[in-house]
Fold:
Amino acid sequence: MQIQEYNMPDELYYEENHFWVRDEGELLVMGMDDFAQKMAGEIVYVQLPDEGKVLKKGKKFAKIESGKWLGKVYAPVSGELVAVNEDLETNPGLINEDCYGKGWLYKIKPSDKGELEDLIRGPEAVEKWVLADIEKYKEE
Amino acid sequence: MDYTLIDEVCCSGVLEDVGYEMNQRLVGLNLERIFATEAEGVITGCPYCSRTFLHKPQYRALAEKGVRVLHLSQFLKDFDFGVRTDKRVTYHDPCDLGRHAGIYEEPRITIRKIAPNFVEMPHNRADALCCGAGGGVRGAFPKNSIAMARRRLQEAEEVGAEVVLTECNSCVHNLSNAKLRKQKFRVCNITEFINELMEEAGV
Structure:
């Protein structure tokens, strides 16, 4: 759905720091959402940890930077990092161009897919959360 | 050695470099806290802080009260750490320590003690290539900044370094970020590296 200037697809799960998660069966794909990429501006660096890294839900496992922002990436679920988007090493701007497509970040093999239910999902919940964040960052 | 830490704030020297004025409130806080310790000297981990403390008139009170300012590399060179590595190690001269302060040999003295396989990059000392992060470049021109860091790292790769040591947190940050996945060497400060070696050796 479109929330003001932000495109937030309905079928995705969202982590509260504005990373999306797509359920692709065995694996989960994650990336930065439209709100985050617009707030951050041009992304200039994405940390791409080695595959095989063990992820713990809620724990920081990578960082992303734009000219004005240093961001942390937290694991949306526990599991194993099985792939990273290597194109971002030389072209991190793909996140700004196409944050739900070519700008994907990581693929995760979850240890318990049930943890997806802890993420934000569905038009109603997403709208409430995004509107609150729009307000929050306006104040800052 | 009898030492203590202070609840430091930014030295604020960089503000002047990018066209603003230094922040007197921050300067005042640092001076107050340093003097409160009654220390004879201040050692900074950041080469920018040490040159700000030494050369900016706002920090003149340090010299007036006889407080000596040293960068960590000047302090470390007289120690024997009792650890060493066989890894091939190179050193990146930070502009704030090298070109701005003329400190080229002290870090090398320390590194040679712990890493006999020390190797220079083609551009070193006063000719060292920039890490791309200094002078506000990282903030203002992030893409160029990363490109400059990559050019520097290419030299580290060419000399076959397994570890790239430097003495500036901005250099560590930018070089680490710019490092490509295929470049397996490690980038860190000398102190950090010595600490790792000591932990490994159980010293």
The interface with chain A takes residues 139-140, 142-143, 145-146, 177-178, 180-181 of chain B (CB under 8 Å).
